[in-house]
Amino acid sequence: MLKDMLRNNIKVIDEVSSWEEAIKIASTTLKDGGFIKEEYISAMLENVVKNGPYIVIMPGIAMPHSRPEDGVLKTGMSLLKLSKNVMFPEEKEVSLIFVLATTDPNTHLSLISELTNLLMDDESLEKMFSAKSEEEVLECIC
Q: Where in this chain does the record put each PTS EIIA type-2 domain (predicted)?
């Protein structure tokens, strides 16, 4: 399911100027694809301002998200892969930004479980950090 969700929802770019820009760019394919409304992006940004960088789930990786009622239209996931790290609050460096938008708790848990399995595989994770294209990222996902 993870690979299908991410297909055509991955952007690989060199750098961004801020963590806010990273979340906005990471969300673009979901917004353009009708998965989320603009309000969802605003809610994700507000969550970080209010709660700190809790979305940095492990070194180098962030997973911005918010509640379904904040503007999720249908379940989806996107990824922004940066060549150069962006600094999140509290000096947290990130280069992989997975945006999660789900309409129900079961799908939410299923996607997080798949993502967790992927991120626990050191070889796949290393390949993702060095990927230069969407195809290379997708090759890391079983």
A: 3-142
